[in-house]
Amino acid sequence: MNRINRIGIAAFAVALVMVCVSLRAWSQDRAKPGDHIQTTEVGSLTRSYIVHVPPAYDGKKPLPLVFVIHGGGGNAERTPKMTGMSEKADKEGFIAVYPYGTGWLKDRLLTWNTGNCCGYAMNNNVDDVSFFRAMLDNLEKTYAIDSKRIYATGISNGAMMSYRLACEFSDKFAAIAPVAGAMNIDDPKPTSPISVIIFHGTDDEHVLYQGGKPKKHVDRHERIDKPVSYAVSFWTKHDGCAEKPKREENETFVKETYGNGNDGTEIVLYAVKKGGHAWFGKYMGWPWEGKEIKGISCTDLIWEFFKTHPKR
Fold first, then answer.
1. What is the domain partition of the chain in residue ranges?
2. What is the assigned CATH class of domain 36-307?
């Protein structure tokens, strides 16, 4: 072997070691507790998302994964503040992921393409389903994820996206938790049972509880929303749940639970009395999203539901 070949082999070995060290450092950095901004390529778009890693993560024990999806006009950065889901993740030990929608601006006034809503994402026929597929693939390669405990929640346009994920990926998601959103998907065809917990204010003027044209809206598109009862009826039939619910009521909400579904699934509805367009509980969004409703916490109830409804 001549001197030039020996130098080339040595240089390659050094480069390989440096790559391995860099990959190890990259992996270790993403395993640290806190927020990590990541990207993935979807078609011609570079999409971004924030991964919140809890202190309990050690890379060995698989943890649950929760997608928390912002509403129309929101962004991933603001969502943890509005929901308090990162604090819940740190306390309970799950990974929270906050994806960015798309819009004319890079990181604000973003939307999701959920069929008949909303804004930029709908106008440009953005493939948000492929975005979530790419995120999930990347996350399962990068982190120790419990494949039986993958969940999604969101508010408004984000809630609509969670419904779409349930229809498109019912084989992957164990449960979803739509807040103040309508299920407007045409001809939904989920393939597996999936648990659903729904929160909706009876006085919501942006997505009406009884369905119909919104009384208030930011999106310029004309939209007719299906009623909350449609989503409840669809999922109870799909899961094979009891036809009559267990009903509970107090001064804040009416709760209906449809149990005994296939593979242990349940459908739960919280109809929040005089509730507006909001993530109910300690954490609220903008003032126009609705007055504060005491006696209910979406964040607490969602996680309690998720952790007791794994995929079976």
1. 36-307
2. alpha beta
